[in-house]
Amino acid sequence: MLETTLHSLSAVLIVMFMVGVGWLFGKLGYIRHEHKSLMIKLIISAGMPALVVNNVFGSLDLSALEKPWLLFLLPLLAMLITLGIGVLLARLLKPDEKRRGGFITMCAFSNSIFVGLPMNTGLFGDAAVPFVMCFYIVNTTLFWTVGNYLISRSGEGANHEKGFFKNLKKLISPPLVALAISLPLLALGVKMPEPIVRLSGYMGNIVTPIALFYIGYALYEYGLKSLKPDKCMLGVMGVRFIVAPLVMLGLCMLFGFGGMPSGVLIIESAMPVMTQAVVVAAAHDADESFVAGGMSITTLGCFVLVPLLMLLMQALGLI
Prior knowledge:
Blueprint (H helix, E strand, L loop, with lengths): L1 H27 L7 H24 L8 H26 L3 H12 L7 H9 L4 H28 L7 H8 L2 H14 L6 H11 L2 H16 L8 H24 L4 H11 L6 H8 L4 H28 L4
Helix pairs in contact: 1-5, 1-10, 1-14, 2-6, 2-8, 2-9, 2-10, 2-13, 3-4, 3-6, 3-11, 4-6, 4-11, 4-14, 5-12, 6-13, 10-14, 11-12, 11-14, 13-14
């Protein structure tokens, strides 16, 4: 158990180290305020669409999965429930308008790949990868539609645009377009040429390091005071680390879905805040320091969460 715990926690250490590099580069002047817009464009318009294509065509094989519809339905239901809980908490805790969308989004969506994938493979081995990918597809789709929309509304505040088509355009983003094209092609059995899959892999690999450097710089720019856990941040941690995994556990039990796949979904549900949420907050002029603090605190929280989740998995006979 100790070896598996260390393997899983190493993913958390890597995340925090890369955030630390971004903070240091900000302090040394290597990353400056004028670089932020370029980093945002690289992540949203180039890296994320490529990452979606690579993950869909390079890692996901629906034909090899039993009841694949359930692997998509359970994460969908779990995220919609936690999204609703986030909305209710936002009404109760009343975060600032520029934080509201980020608060709800942080409650609902998790870091399913960069932290979740190594943690699950550390716990369950490579057999966990297809189940992680199913969770990732749902997580990414909802984030780039609902999450992106909520954060954009917070950035605009009281001046948000009204009208169906004006609101619809907020839902359309390069990662979502990539998903909308890739998933139907995969369902139809279309095989992407290997050079394109490799190219998308190279381009997609820029997302995590640039996003984490960006977060580190944001923490430097706004100061480490953004890490102070106020009532809203504690609410995010409560949903991410307690409510979300319990919701997924309850759904798995309700649908009679057990074994290792259910363990993967429970672990994925309890992962830290998505790194891309910080970039989206910055792109829409929402409170990026609040989201960056939430991402960093929840990532650090994994040091406590992972051993507890492993005990839960053992009690349920999943590991």
